[in-house]
Design brief:
alpha/beta; ten-stranded mixed beta sheet; globular; binds guanosine-5'-diphosphate; binds 6-O-phosphoryl inosine monophosphate; binds magnesium ion
Length: 401
């Protein structure tokens, strides 16, 4: 049975660690959305791996598959291929991020001024936009060597973005040659042999282009329902979805963040949790566990089981707050959908909980930690399957089903 791992917040929930933890018996790990804007961290025996484009199964030498909903940057791909062993398959239908896309990403951000989204500047938005305009080359186009780049170049020229792509095309062809294929067919083939596959989500549910905090979102879908579309298979392929959530919240980049904490306490959590972006190194904004948005994410992804990460961070701070409703211009809202048009004005109503300060993880799950797990299960109507209390694979509690 396949399964998927999806971020339930604004990204960086610890998806890489969880995928690594649970992929031991799987044949392959599949990325199905986004591109090198992702930064997924796996720590094994003190050694840290950060993957931007390849799936985190790379740390276990698993087969790595990029489905056609991923936008592929050949330069980043080449760097990552050099660091891993294991078979790699890139879907021939993936769009290829061009140097023009990266320039446009930067220019749009600069033109937005104070309203900049804080993108990763990896050309992700422009690449998906060029695909929608039917101007972007796919992996198979780069390899066929007969793609007409004129329309793309003319379009970019209108924005004064130009330059000869010939050298980049040659380079990309060398990187992509021999690793392209049909991601959906490969997953079906593995399943027919009785092998399991993990689908590794990138970004988080609230960054989904359609259902997230638009326009402060990424440019792809981030939800489990994008998996079958990305592979070109039917919905049955997804399997169970495990939602990954941090026991507080973070957000990197701009945009509304109702449960945001600022000041000394936020700085302390950022320092203890090492909350700096794995892709850009930017300081992540800090907030509290927000059940309003989590309920929305759980529903959209059909999540029945969750993995909770970073509870060790809570054991080093004296306070613990949660949010079950927002106040928007004096109105109380507990349905994220209703808050969407007014998210900028939404302020979390925070409740103080028993702190986990000084918690000793060698005793297992008792007291304040048990209470927190029970609260999460009750509020979200899910089972907590994994509790992560450190970045190492071994620092994980597994709850029996
Ligand atoms: P992803 O994008 O969802 O894969 O998450 P990132 O890798 O961007 O960020 C998560 C960070 O938290 C990484 O540095 C992980 O090594 C780290 N991490 C994951 N789980 C835990 C945990 O339980 N405790 C601590 N302290 N760090 C964790
Ligand atoms: P992982 O997979 C956190 C954010 C950016 C920005 C917005 C748009 O590691 O969880 P983009 O470059 O995608 O056009 O930027 O989305 N963002 C992420 N935030 N984790 C990520 O990935 C992210 N990928 C994009 O910071 O606010
Ligand atoms: Mg990340």
């Amino acid at each position: 049975m396949n399964f998927s791992v999806i971020g339930l917040q604004w990204g960086d929930e610890g998806k890489g660690k969880i995928v690594d933890y649970i992929s031991g018996n799987c044949a392959a790990v599949v990325r199905f959305n986004g591109g090198s804007n992702a930064g997924h961290t796996v720590v094994k025996d003190g050694k840290k791996y950060v993957f931007h484009l390849l799936p985190s199964g790379a740390a276990r030498g698993k087969e790595m598959i990029l489905a056609s909903g991923v936008v592929v940057d050949p330069i980043i791909l080449s760097e990552e291929i050099g660091k891993v062993f294991g078979k790699i398959l890139i879907d021939s239908r993936c769009s290829v991020v061009t140097p023009y896309d990266k320039k446009l990403d930067e220019i749009i951000e600069e033109k937005r001024g104070s309203l900049a989204l804080g993108t990763t500047r990896r050309g992700i938005g422009p690449s998906y936009a060029m695909r929608a305009l039917r101007l972007e080359p796919r992996v198979c186009d780069i390899l066929a060597n007969d793609f007409n780049f004129e329309a793309l170049a003319t379009f970019y020229d209108m924005m004064h973005i130009n330059g000869n792509l010939q050298e980049w095309i040659e380079y990309s062809r060398n990187v992509l040659k021999g690793i392209e294929g049909d991601s959906g067919a490969r997953v079906v083939e593995l399943n027919e042999k009785g092998e399991e596959v993990v689908f590794e989500g990138s970004q988080g549910s609230l960054l989904d282009i359609m259902h997230g905090s638009y326009p402060y979102v990424t440019s792809s879908h981030t939800l489990s329902t994008y998996i079958p579309l990305s592979l070109g298979l039917s919905k049955d392929i997804i399997g169970d979805t495990i939602g990954v959530m941090k026991c507080y919240a973070t957000r990197v980049g701009s945009g509304p963040f109702p449960s945001e904490e600022k000041g000394v306490l936020a700085e302390e959590i950022r320092r203890i949790g090492n909350e700096y972006g794995a892709t850009t190194g930017r300081a992540r904004r800090i907030g509290w566990l927000d059940f309003v948005s989590l309920k929305y994410a759980v529903r959209m992804n059909g999540v029945k089981e969750v993995a909770i990460t970073k509870v060790d961070v809570l054991s080093k701070i004296r306070q613990l707050k949660i949010c079950r409703s927002y106040s928007v211009d004096g109105e109380e809202i507990s349905d994220f959908f209703k808050a969407i048009p007014r998210l900028d004005d939404a302020k979390a109503e925070l409740e103080e909980m028993d702190s986990l300060h000084g918690y000793d993880f060698s005793i297992g799950m008792k007291g304040a930690l048990k209470k927190l797990i029970e609260l999460i299960e009750e509020e979200l109507k899910v089972s907590v399957r994994l509790v992560s209390y450190g970045e190492e694979r071994s620092e994980t509690f597994e709850l029996s089903r």
